[in-house]
Amino acid sequence: MQIDSGLYLFGLAGTVPLLAVWLAAAIVAFVRFDRDPRRSTMVLLAVGIFFLTRIVFPLITPLVLNAIGGGIEEIQLRVLLNALMYSVPGSIAYALLIWTALDLSGDRRSRAGETTEDTWSTATNRQ
Q: What would the pLDDT profile of 5-15 be if each residue is shown by its tens digit?
């Protein structure tokens, strides 16, 4: 099975704006790593998954799908596997980003590094 490199490169060129956003997110995560390593790690994992699915998966998808056979009777299985190959890693990456954005770890910190309980007790003591 030979992969048409021209089609692959045109497909990749069409996603340059998306790749640029992912690259910017990775750079910001690297810059902020010392300040918030847990969130930066989660963002870097998510961005890595996005890059992997966009750059590597188009190369391995034909190999995986052709390994199950090429008959017309298996077209439904091929469509299902193709959808799963992209949706499972993508949903994991989106879940990491949502977890990071909502800070579901229970460690709620304000910008000053105080917990919300400290901020609340300080605000109520001022009154």
A: 777 788 888 88
